[in-house]
User: What shape does this take?
Amino acid sequence: MDAKTRDDLLQLFQSKLNRAMTYYLETCTRCGVCTTACHVYQSMPQAKYIAAYRAEIVRRIYKKYFKGQGKVWPSYGEAKELTEMALEELYEAAYSCTGCRRCMVYCPFGIDTQMIMSIAKLLLVGAHAEPEILTLLADTSIEKGKSIEFFKEGFLQGVKNLEQQVVEKWKLEAEGKTVIPVDVEGADLLYVALAGAHSIIPAAAVFNAAGENWTLSFFEAVNFGAFVGDPTKTKLILDRIVNEAKRLKVKEVCICECGTAYRVMKQLSGKQPFEVSSVTEVHARYIREGRIKLDKSRFQGPVTYHDPCQIARNGGILEEPRYILQHLTDDYREMAPDPRYNYCCGGGGGLVALGEETLDFRMKSARVKAEQVQKTGAAILATACENCHTQLENLNHHYKLGMNVQFLTSMVADALVI
Amino acid sequence: MSNAIQADKVMDLKGLPCPMPVVKVSKGIKEVEVGQILEAQTTDPGSLTDFPAWARTSGNEIVDTIQENGVIRIFIKRNV
Ligand code: SF4
Ligand code: SF4
Assistant: This one.
């Protein structure tokens, strides 16, 4: 690595050194409590998968360049130079961590390994050593934001074609209004979906059943800038939705079943003239207010729920999905340990988006998740995140769990009493 | 089905979860020669904005889009 590249990367490192990060980098006592907290280590007990070990790879570079001690005497405190080889280690550490933060809940000092890994990811982006496809996906989202006028017509036509499916399945007209409204100024709620029809059709059925004054976003909710750990791209992708919400003067931005999208919008959008909610919160509200009714007999067999890390542990939404499920089943089975300590599905941090490339690792590293799910004895495994759903489907197949993996939104839509 | 353009490779991307359509098409385009056509079939309206944005980003070109019977057929010319 040439000196200029190293300097540039160290500047990126420096940009991450706020108070919280410095605390995380300087505090670990190597007590080892986090060792078995990580699903990756529990499933594949190798030292490199211990949370504190991952963090140490970043910490050593910190010691070398940002701490007096390391600068003077590199062998003391295991300071380490930033080299091509160090980048490889950073890659392995960052892309075998799903950012679930289970380790943080166990650490007596609350050290956030996910946040430390965000340094690793940023250095990889700076060195052009990140997974190329994640950057391509992020750039695609940004390009969409720049030229939406150019793509608008096609999208509107595509959405029109879905409306018939909503009307046919739910026998539901939107009381003289458009079944899937797009670009409606003055709507109360902006729903930000994913590209897939499965993220739009059931949600549209529920909004219309609840008599919501809503409009569908032109943009997909997911933020690949966050997955790849690029703060500039994360912000550009986020701003597309913030600007659309302001232009339409909506009161609420409702994020579809996508954990990262929800966390990024909720925690990084700053103070705005609209509220941010997840579709799970909105559905719970509709039930509470009597705006929708659900038929409990629609789903047979015991049901369990996987808490997406970015929505539950990192987003605080724990009660709402359980409240919804009370209206969908009389046989709900909670996973053990309880939701705050829930295991990650094993697909976060961009691993699912990397597809086949990470499949083997995702299956092996989430063995404890498969066991946790199986122990509930449930027939239906519900969740509220696209990423988790894909990973859980993969686990279902790999470990032959024989479960019916469902989106919570789809269950609500399918159980609607019209 | 009308078929304005003869594709050199057809990919069925119907009903795939996010972000697999774009991930798969990024790989699929490398399996045709420069100048050849890849046809991506989806049912997701988001593809109608995602694919043109992806084409601009990756330097490829959408040469035609047909929506019929609920299926969206996107014809992509490999340029790079
Ligand atoms: S639990 Fe916290 S202090 Fe203990 S080794 Fe892990 S990160 Fe370090
Ligand atoms: S954030 Fe999750 S995956 Fe990463 S080290 Fe901690 S427990 Fe393991």
